Amino acid sequence: MSNPANTRSVSVEGAEAQQKEKGKETPKKLKRVWSERTFSTVGPGSIRGSIITLVGAALGVGSLTLPYAMSLVGIHQGIVMLFLSGGASFISLSILKKATARTDAHDYAELLYRTTGSKRASLGIDMIICVFCFGSLCTFFIFFGDFCPAVVQPLPLPEFMKERGFVLVFFALAVMPLTQLDKISMFRGLASLPVVASLLFTGCMGFFARENFQRAVESGLELFFFRLDVLMTLKANSIFLFAFFQHISAVFVAYELVSPSDLRVEKTVGRAIWTEIAIYIPLAVFGYLSFLSSTEGNVSRNYPMDSIPFLVCRLLFCLALMVCVPLRSYAAANSAVSLAWKWGILPGSPAPSVGTTGAMRGGDEERALVGVTPGEEEEQRKRAMSRGRRSLGPLFLLGALMVGLRVRQVAEVVALLSALLATTIMISGPLGIFLCSLRNGTAGVGTGVAVFVVVYLSVFALLGYTQALVTVAQGFGWL
User: Fold this and answer.
1) Which parts of the chain register pLDDT below 50?
2) Would you tell me which of 67, 153, 187, 249 could form a disulfide with 299, CB atoms 3.0–4.6 Å apart?
3) Which stretches are tagged as biased composition: Basic and acidic residues (predicted)?
4) Is 478 part of a structural domain of the chain?
């Protein structure tokens, strides 16, 4: 299969690599190219578009839990753990994106198969992504149902429009058209909403932080810098790590990236992670300093509902969910369609005995048995996947809506699923891909770097799965 990356047009941002190859350029020319690269329209597959999509996938209502995580471990320990979690995310994202560029895989499951050669691993990761993303969708709807009715209370609306059920149905109808977008790069225009919401919320917290801190100290609350409690550290680590969760979208973004060289991949991932850290640290610090140990799991609940600045922030976070929900719906539908294709139950898919995608078939002899060429097979797969994704996206959305209408308290179950499944997607999957690339000699790193990456990711995998066991033990009252 030829790599479509070789046939993609070079964007304006590719001018940087061309300038380096030319060697000598005048400062005026370099300045012109930089200005064009910075202020030109953000196109599909560009570095800036990819960064915006990744950051938008990571940010959202989950960032409101960071002050609570910092209250568990103290301000200095929390900052260190936030940097370490960002480092783990950077390493695993780089592995995924470089492997995607090398194999031209179109989604996480196919990437896992092309690098590990395991059909079971590919099927397993599709199932994990499908379950995890549907659970995330349900969480978003439950959050929206508990949060937004209070937000719309001050608005001059009829009473029936302020009911939880009406708000949820309205939200589902509003985001339904976004489930029909065929490429994840199409979300780049909306992906800035979570960033704007987080920045505005951080600014409001910082403005009132001194006053709230004095009030918290006067009430007898204590400021901690380090709290070396094992259980609290494990819980905080899960929250910090999952704040950088963007790995499902990363494979789609890497597949659509123009000229996906290692340099462009590292730029995209590095700038996305640094942007997230630059937003997370002040948000977590201001939130913790404002309320110390009384910080809520959702820090926005610490602020009065009638405060105009925070009312605006809450509305922006509600709009940010319009990005988070279709991104999760896109990933869930893609994995479900991938499973249907591999099992031969999707219209237009091959029989399960023949194979799945071109990468998972036995070779040209098996293709000849069903009378298709590799190119025809790939086009057939793309059309079937696109139709199936657009059909299943609304169904996942409606399913999450039904759960949100009927269920309110699923936090512990979702937390357990997140600890198990998100750790697998974020850490274990990339670690397995990296180990296979070391075995095949395609990792492109020295022995020292390889050992560091394996140990670093293994530690975070161990912490994530340990937290899952702790959650189960606490649920049964064993801890």
Assistant:
1) 1-32, 351-372, 410
2) 67
3) 18-28
4) no
